[in-house]
Amino acid sequence: xxxxxxxxxxxxxxxxxxxxxxxxxxxxxxxxxxxxxxxxxxxxxxxxxxxxxxxxxxxxxxxxxxxxxxxxxxxxxxxxxxxxxxxxxxxxxxxxxxxxxxxxxxxxxxxxxxxxxxxxx
Length: 121
Fold this sequence. Notes:
There is one protein chain. The protein is mostly helical. The protein has 5 helices and no strands.
């Protein structure tokens, strides 16, 4: 080991000069730009966005609740099989009532066409 003292760079660190605006100046610039953008917003339309956000939030919460219910139902060993059987019975009964004759099939086709025109244009 040497007995020499390390050189100090105190000369270069005594007066540090910032290379640009300070943090507070940058923050003021950002806030001024944000205020300009907010000032340009049409606040009369914000109700629509709030309603849309509320509907989306409700749909997400409903989907989470439905998933929890379905997972709970699937936890029991007999219930999923019984629900599948119930679904097959309901589809069979609906098909028997509505697709048995050609008149009923034509009526169902007309209903579907009318719904398609109504909702899809």
